[in-house]
Specification:
By secondary structure, the protein is an alpha/beta fold. It is built from nine helices and 20 strands.
């Protein structure tokens, strides 16, 4: 990315539901400045820009051609992630996208290859792994509080997003489903905590062929289901640790911890990886109760968009913590779990990635480092 950028100028493509979360964060980050928004629905982009002084509503093509835009924040639906990312890269712009990196690992590999050839940087959500929840758990593991990690469990159970999302169609077609929608939070967290994955075993099913939209102008409309809606997998990490993952749009609820990490001398309860914060609990070998660990690492009061700040703050030539390599590896892992589910065979993971660097305890206001080291 050349010299570190004092201010990285951002253009957003895609003005759907998720944009509100980014718009609540970007103004507080002094490394970033939003200058333009675009959407296939021009009126929607204009409505967003109208509430943001100095931000222009452009067509997608105009945004890609705009010299003021240094990085494209890609908030389109998963099926369009690769197309938009490649257009931005072709225009010489950095890219940060919502998860997953692309609809398929093959498309994601094309994005990373194009970025490498163009000399631009790729980042990708989820950046929740940079918050105090996951990072405090990471610090506990790195400090040896549970000994050598042996296993993990990751559980996400809900009855489906059509209950609240006004346009949930993309959740129920190939490229959607609970694993590719929610799995990035869990798999990215597991790789951050335990390192990359070398092989997987999976099983999957889907309970209903139709779903009924529960909110918005399409409430009551029935949509078809053509992808797996309950997925189980075992991830075999390069370290030897085993992670069991269950992702479901078919269940009602669960009391299981979102993520648990078990080691030779202790166990950790890790908060919801779809959040930035939350309590980390530790139970040491021989203890009869859990203890809550003090917050010791991660971006304090983080919210969606800190991955962009982290990217802008990354040293030249270094991979962002929420970077393309991690996003690609997580996508291949998830895709391979589904492949295994349909073949009944263990699937080797071709890619790997560095375990992302730990985040010291950082308060976003002024990026003040409170504890630890960069």
């Amino acid at each position: 990315m050349g010299q570190p950028l004092n201010i990285l100028t951002i253009g957003i493509v895609g003005c759907g539901n998720i944009i509100a979360q980014y718009l609540s964060t970007l103004p507080s980050l002094d490394t970033l400045r939003l200058v333009a928004v675009a959407d296939l629905d021009v009126a929607r982009a204009q409505a967003v820009a109208a509430d943001l002084p100095g931000v222009r509503a452009l067509s997608v093509a105009e945004l890609m051609d705009d010299d003021e835009v240094q990085l494209v924040l890609n908030l389109t639906i998963p099926a369009a992630h690769a197309q938009v990312a490649l257009a931005a890269i072709a225009a010489g712009k950095h890219v940060y996208g919502e998860k997953p990196l692309a609809a398929t690992a093959e498309e994601a590999a094309t994005v990373l290859a194009a970025a490498a050839a163009a000399g631009v940087t790729v980042g990708c959500a989820p950046d929740t792994v940079l918050g105090t929840g996951t990072q405090t758990a990471r610090r506990a593991i790195d400090d040896g509080l549970i000994g050598r990690p042996i296993s993990a469990t990751a559980t996400m159970m809900c009855p489906g997003h059509e209950r609240w999302h006004p346009n949930p169609d993309f959740y129920y077609v190939p490229g959607g489903g609970p694993l590719l929608d929610m799995g990035p939070y869990y798999v990215s967290s597991l790789v951050t905590l335990l390192g990359p994955v070398k092989s997987v075993i999976g099983a999957a099913s889907h309970t209903r062929d139709e779903r009924t939209i529960g909110s918005g102008p399409r409430a009551g409309e029935v949509i078809p289901v053509s992808t797996d809606t309950h997925v189980s997998g075992v991830l075999i990490h390069e370290s030897g640790a085993l992670s069991t993952v269950i992702m479901s749009f078919d269940a009602v609820a669960t009391q299981a911890a979102n993520i648990e990490i078990h080691g030779e001398t202790g166990s950790l309860i890790v908060p919801d990886p779809n959040r930035f914060d939350g309590e980390v609990q530790l139970r040491r070998l021989g203890d009869s109760e859990w203890e809550t660990l003090p917050v010791s690492a991660g971006y304090v009061d983080g919210s969606r968009g800190i991955g962009l700040h982290d990217l802008a703050s990354t040293a030249p030539g270094a991979e962002p913590r929420a970077g393309g390599a991690l996003a690609y590896h997580a996508l291949e892992v998830m895709e391979s779990v589904l492949k295994s589910a349909h073949t009944g065979q263990l699937v080797a993971i071709a890619s790997t990635c560095e375990r992302p660097a730990a985040v010291p305890l950082i308060r976003l206001a002024g990026a003040e480092i409170l504890a630890g080291s960069a």
